[in-house]
UniProtKB/TrEMBL annotation:
GO terms for cellular component: exocyst. One of its GO terms (biological process) is exocytosis. This is Uncharacterized protein. It comes from the Eukaryota. The lineage of its organism: Eukaryota, Viridiplantae, Streptophyta, Embryophyta, Tracheophyta. It comes from Papaver somniferum (Opium poppy).
């Protein structure tokens, strides 16, 4: 796999993760937005972020790991680097 394709795949996976979190109701906030929030509001959001991230890890990353195992079947060291880099 060429380096450019590798980075395209990584960027695609990042976009899929972002879209999945949005569908689950996680809003994208800037650093300034977070710093301006009252603690109680932020604490509630953090709880939901953790909850929804766990869902994504169980679904999206598990699927990506299966796909990377198939793509890099004969290249164990490259497979490990790819999966770590993409995720």
């Amino acid at each position: 796999m060429e380096k450019l394709e590798f980075f395209r795949l990584r960027d695609t996976c990042a976009k899929v993760l972002e879209m999945s979190l949005q569908k689950l109701g996680v809003e994208k906030l800037s650093k300034d937005d977070v710093q301006k929030m009252q603690w109680e509001v932020l604490e509630a959001k953090i709880g939901s972020w953790i909850h929804f991230t766990r869902i994504d890890v169980k679904t999206l990353f598990a699927g990506q790991h299966i796909i990377s195992d198939q793509i890099f079947e004969d290249m164990h060291s490259l497979r490990t680097v790819y999966f770590a880099e993409v995720n």
